[in-house]
């Protein structure tokens, strides 16, 4: 079971409070997590990744175990603490500017 923490605007769209738990195919990857989120919450399709290319949106970042996973390959296995549910998979809205 994977624990997922999303930013407030995505939680609002999905009508959930707090973190979400998902059953993920093994081995758990970012692609499996996002597929499961979009399957369970169809209103989030296109908000985390592009509909056509399936690439992460520019101002969305993924974190796990205090590490930025955003630029890892989508099919890389998630760190063990995230895969086991000890640590959450974080989806974070990034900002730019100064």
Description:
With 98 residues, the chain is of the alpha+beta class. It has one domain (2-93): Roll (Ubiquitin-like (UB roll)). It is 22% helix and 19% strand. The chain has 3 helices and 5 strands, in the order βαβαββαβ. The protein has a 5-stranded mixed β-sheet with strand order 2-1-5-3-4. The protein is globular. The model has no long low-confidence stretch (mean pLDDT 94).
- Can you tell me the overall shape? globular
Quickly give the structural class. Answer: alpha+beta
Order of helices and strands: EHEHEEHE
CATH superfamily: Beta-grasp domain
Number of strands: 5
Largest sheet: 5 strands, mixed
First-residue to last-residue Cα separation: 38 Å
User: How many alpha or pi helices?
Assistant: 3
- CATH domain class name: Alpha Beta
How does the SSE layout of this entry go?
Elements: E1 2-5, H1 8-14, E2 20-22, H2 30-40, E3 60-64, E4 67-68, H3 80-83, E5 89-93
Parallel strand pairs: 1-5
Antiparallel strand pairs: 1-2, 3-4, 3-5
What are the main properties of this structure?
98 residues, Ubiquitin-like (UB roll), globular
Give a brief outline of the structure.
The chain is of the alpha+beta class and 98 residues long.
């Amino acid at each position: 079971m994977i624990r997922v923490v999303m930013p407030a605007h995505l939680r609002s769209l999905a009508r959930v409070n707090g973190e979400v738990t998902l059953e993920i195919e093994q081995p758990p990857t970012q692609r499996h997590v996002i597929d499961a989120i979009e399957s369970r919450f169809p209103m989030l399709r296109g908000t985390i990744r592009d509909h056509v290319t399936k690439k992460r949106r520019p101002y969305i970042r993924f974190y796990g175990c205090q590490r930025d996973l955003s630029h890892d390959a989508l099919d890389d296995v998630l760190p063990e603490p995230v895969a086991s549910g000890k640590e959450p998979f974080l989806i974070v809205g990034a900002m730019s500017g100064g």
